# Entry
Amino acid sequence: MANESNEVELHGIERMCTMGENSSYKLAMIVSIDGPIRELIPKLKTAFTSTINRHPRMRGMLVKNKLHTAYIRDYLTEDEVEKLFVISEIGESWETIVQRECEIPFNRYEEIPYTLWVVVKNDRNAHLILFADHFMSDGVSGAFILHDVLSAATNQPETEEHQLTTDIYKIRRTPMIRFIEKTIMKAVRPIVTNGLRKFKPIFPIAADQKPFTIPLPVNPSRGLFHSGSPENMMAAIRRCKQEGVTVSTAMLVGVLLAVAKTKYKRLSDCPVVKVSMECAFDLRRGSEKTLELKVGAFSAATLVPGYKNKGMNLDANFWQESRRAKTELGKSYFLLNFTLAFFDTYMSAGKKKYVFDKQPGCIMGDFNYSNVGKYPFPLSYKFNSETIDLGTLNAHCSATHASSGCNLYFLSSNAFNYSMTTKYEEGISREFFDNMIKVIESMGTIQKDETIREAGRRIFNENGLDDTLKDMANKR
# Structure
């Protein structure tokens, strides 16, 4: 039962995700596991129960008739967790399960916002799927929870119980943010509204995406998934270290190169690529010693204005552009305070009118770039006389009423893992996804002096295509 001592005021993405009762912002974190699956399964439910009870926000539910407020319910028994723990052995693929289940919203007033599925392939292989309501979770949370569950199931439990401490959003709600909310936001609203009206998605929106209206529409999301090569990941990491850039910023340049290839088909026809791109940031940064921050919606995405205004010149050096990307992301991080204030003011339940009313497809930007990074725990857990080994990691998140055209999730284990939630037409989405994978998997081959265009033409074999076209023209 809710009382003031266990209530949490919602802010930021927490408010956006809970704008509509029928809206689904369900996040899925998927990991493949190899080992003695049959022996592990009986341990997982108990482990999931203890994990839920360790992290307060895993028990978060909305308070009825009280806007922007959740409460943390009491500890769950293993019997209560029974309905939150699902074993699937019917041969249905994990991709199909993720796609279907993410479209079904949690009842935020009555249901615990987490479920765990075990999708069994055979006695030695399975996928764990952690479903979570995004208003109480994010990608980093998923990694912590999966680790806690596997640790407990393999008799290596994390025993520290975390408390509901001061909320991260309250710490970030500095006098500057409160000043922004009271003054600057009124001036910003018409600018944002005008920008959204002028926004034209870089790719065609799927026909089943309805515009933003009240009551909120329920738009479906489609997921694409792929796991790369361990050799390609190691080669990319080596090249990034040699050039003194982060893997994340080099990947961002790779994404923009894939956009150019998909939109223009031939890179020789693309002068500059401009996109409306958001980058997701982890709000835990710099607060680890202050808060219990393992589980919760402690992330926020904000615009990277440099790629919308100036864009990326394909004749720039690939590695120099990767260095520029770090600068652009730094500028974007500075905008987080404005983003949090904007979410609280204009993207929360109870409004009669929103800045993005009638927005086509409920799409507010071209891409959301979320590099969750490397799984921060061991990829192998000792279990009896054997081990449980982790393989691929993927993510998916439904977004029924407000989203970018594509949400990109990058996670790494022993290879790069690619996940994309898309609102664009199926054909163009698949083409872009394949192009993006091809570029990033080839990053280890990009030379010190190659321009973005040169690297792209080599990766996509456009030089050979030009030779073929010349031969055809000569024969005519």
The first strand starts at residue 7 and ends at 9.
